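# step 3/5: fold
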Amino acid sequence: MDTLVKNTELSSEFILNSLQNPIIVINSAKKKIIYCNNAVEIFLETSRKNIIGKKINNLFKEDSYFISLIEKSIKSNRNINEFNVSINTPKKKTNFSI
């Protein structure tokens, strides 16, 4: 086995932070963000310390389709996939696949 592979611990956080897609983990009971990867910081143009612990509707417009998808996911206790969803944040509006 390659020495580099032996000496490298691939933690889940390392792997998630290597992804270019934004990943947000939400506490479904409180609707607060409990984890985000580096791509979320880039997407929202703010640091992780300004994201973790915030309610999801503080970062995204509450009446947005994105928030309704989160609600649907929480109620059904299932992941939801959508494509070309318009996501509005306080800083910008963009189309994104989730």
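# step 4/5: annotate
The mean pLDDT is 81.
# step 5/5: archive (pending)
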